[in-house]
Amino acid sequence: MTMEQVYQLTENLKQLLDHYHLQDRVVTIRELKELLDKRGELIDRLELPCSEEDQVLVRKIDAMNQKINPVLESIRTEIIKDMQQLKKTKKTISRYRNPYQGPSQDGMFLDKRE
């Protein structure tokens, strides 16, 4: 029974990722986390050895995971890029608002004559 539930959650996960849009990223990530947590709990409760039917489901789940993992990785990459862009923007805004804070970009001239 639990292998069928894992299969169903994996299928729901795949469908969610198939309809992923950048505008709905926050909602999608929340749903992804929820599905992945539920699936992880079910996988932890699985009993080995599996029946023949369960082995067929495991192969189907593995095939779906091969499609799910690259999409999750691309979402992760998008989030990292957005975080880096946000840090860069914050730094630029900070420099614009307070241009005299920190070392000078121009350099410095020292006159050795006394």
TrEMBL record:
Region (Disordered): 91-114
Predominant location category: cytoplasm
Pfam families in the record: FliT
UniProt keywords, alphabetically: Bacterial flagellum biogenesis, Chaperone, Cytoplasm
Subcellular location: Cytoplasm, Cytosol
Function, as annotated: May act as an export chaperone for the filament capping protein FliD.
Family: Belongs to the bacillales FliT family.
The protein's name in its UniProt record: Flagellar protein FliT
